[in-house]
């Protein structure tokens, strides 16, 4: 398995987020030096140089990528009350970091996209991620794009909602369909394995998962989460119109903080969010190590330890 050399400096966006934190931990375990973008001041961390700023801050981006060996672009907007939020975070932000890398002479660029980019017509989010991919692939960078499926693991606040509901005994679901999953630590390991580049990964778009053939049905996923929290929840598949009604109610109640949006309903109701076998990363480069049942149990234990699950 290829790994980054200890002499390399990784420039990372989105380092304070769910995936970014896992990448920082994996980089530290490998003894890699990291320069990481952050909106807010952070506590000192061995091996990490924090750069305060965001994807619209040209000076911060220039400092982030100077003398870096590779950029791992994780930052993005996964939920927004309006299209402008997705455009700013996923399109213009990607353009800005690509331009910063090109100007600084950083050649290697790893871009974390989303499986939703495969079906951009279904959501504003997916369309913005696809446009971000096109910016990367049209550049002269030595690029690799990674489209993760559903990511779970410690610190996650998105999948956590399903754990919380399973604990209560009922898990509302979209209409019948299948999804692929991946533990955040496995995703972090893949991103670092891609750092050296090479002919098998340059110019490629990968769709990694947990190794479960054909993914999981929505009901199977709900039951697996139920097992992780010690429950046998009722898995309730809801029609799209009901989900749209719930999204409108959530918007009226929580305003811009709404978790379920009409845009999310658009891609949640797609029947097939499983990864494509021909898009898997090379097996000599990376293989998933965390079985999903075990990973879900460990994630539930983390939520309990942190007081997220009563």
Give structural attributes:
310 residues, alpha/beta, Rossmann fold, three-stranded mixed β-sheet
| Strand neighbour order, sheet with most strands | 3-2-1-4-5-6-11
Structural class: alpha/beta
Poorly predicted regions are none
Q: Kindly provide the radius of gyration, computed on alpha-carbon positions and rounded to a whole number of angstroms.
A: 19 Å
Proportion of strand residues: 15-25%
Which CATH top level class of the domain at 9-150 and 182-211 and 276-289 fits? Alpha Beta
On the 0 to 100 scale, the average pLDDT is 95
For CATH, the homologous superfamily of the domain at 9-150 and 182-211 and 276-289 is named as NAD(P)-binding Rossmann-like Domain
Tell me the CATH topology of the domain at 9-150 and 182-211 and 276-289.
Rossmann fold
Helix content: 25-40%
What general form does the structure show? globular
The arrangement of helices and strands along the chain is EHEEHEHEHEEHEEEHEEHEHHEH
Q: In DSSP terms, counting alpha (H) and pi (I) runs of 4 or more, how many helices? A: 10
Q: Give me the CATH architecture of the domain at 9-150 and 182-211 and 276-289, please.
A: 3-Layer(aba) Sandwich
| Secondary structure: number of strands | 14
Distance between the termini: 40 Å
């Amino acid at each position: 398995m290829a790994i980054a050399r200890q002499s390399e400096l990784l420039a990372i966006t989105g380092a304070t987020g769910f995936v970014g934190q896992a990448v920082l931990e994996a980089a530290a375990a490998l003894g890699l030096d990291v320069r990481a973008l952050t909106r807010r001041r952070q506590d000192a961390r061995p091996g990490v140089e924090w750069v305060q700023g965001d994807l619209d801050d040209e000076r911060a981006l220039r400092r982030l990528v100077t003398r870096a060996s590779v950029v791992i672009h994780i930052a993005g907007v996964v939920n927004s009350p309006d299209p402008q939020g997705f455009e700013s975070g996923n399109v213009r932000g990607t353009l800005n970091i690509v331009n910063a890398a090109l100007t600084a002479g950083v050649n290697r660029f790893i871009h974390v996209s989303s499986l939703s980019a495969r079906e951009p017509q279904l959501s504003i989010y997916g369309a913005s991620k696809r446009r971000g991919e096109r910016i990367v692939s049209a550049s002269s960078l030595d690029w690799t794009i990674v489209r993760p499926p559903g990511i779970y693991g410690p610190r996650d606040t998105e999948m956590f909602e399903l754990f919380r509901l399973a604990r209560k005994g009922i898990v509302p679901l979209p209409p019948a369909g299948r999804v692929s999953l991946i533990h955040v630590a496995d995703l972090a390991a893949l991103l670092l394995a891609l750092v050296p580049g090479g002919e098998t990964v340059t110019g490629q778009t990968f769709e990694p998962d947990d190794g479960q053939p054909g993914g999981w049905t929505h009901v199977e996923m709900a039951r697996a989460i139920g097992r992780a929290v010690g429950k046998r929840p009722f898995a309730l598949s809801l029609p799209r119109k009901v989900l749209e009604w719930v999204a409108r109610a959530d918007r009226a109640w929580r305003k811009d903080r709404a978790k379920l949006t009409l845009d999310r309903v658009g891609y949640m109701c797609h029947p097939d969010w499983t990864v494509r076998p021909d898009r898997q990363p090379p097996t000599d480069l990376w293989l998933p190590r965390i079985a999903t049942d075990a990973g879900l149990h460990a994630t539930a234990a983390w939520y309990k330890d942190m007081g997220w699950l009563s």
